[in-house]
Amino acid sequence: MSTLIEKLTEEKRRNPRINSNISVQLIRPTGEKLNAVSSNISLCGCQVRVTDPLPVSEKLAIHLLAPKDCLESYENQNAIAIQAQVMRSEKERNYNVCGLRFAEHSEEQQFQLKAIFQAFGDAYEYHSDR
Length: 130
Fold this sequence. Notes:
The protein is an alpha+beta fold. It is built from two helices and nine strands, in the order ββββββαββαβ. It has helices at 71-76, 107-120, and strands at residues 4-5, 18-19, 23-27, 33-41, 45-50, 59-64, 80-92, 95-102, 125-126. It has a six-stranded antiparallel β-barrel. The longest helix has 14 residues, at 107-120. The protein is globular.
C-alpha cells in the first residue's frame, strides 16, 4: 500500500482524510469526558459528532482507538492521546459536528495516526510534486 496519494487541484487541506467511524473520547479542560464518533480523520485533525455543542477555540484532549484485527487487540490497546482545538462547531440533525485541529504531536503519536490509515488501507500524505 502506498502512503502517498495524488492531491486534487481544488483540495485545500494539507493532508488526505479518510472517512471513518472511529470511537473517540474527548476530555474537556474541566475533566468532563465526552464520547464521540469521528466522521473523518487526517494527520492534522478530525471531524467528530458529539451530543452537546463544543465552543470554537476550546482546547481539549482526544483519545482515539485504532482499528484492530480482533476484538481482544482492540480492547487491550492504549488509546492515542492528542491535544486538539475546536475549529468549527455546527448543529446537524440530532448531533453537533465539530472540526478539531490536532496540536503539535510526538513522532510516536504521528506513527500511531499513520497506523489508522494503514488499517483502512488509505494514504496519509499527498505527493509533494504539486
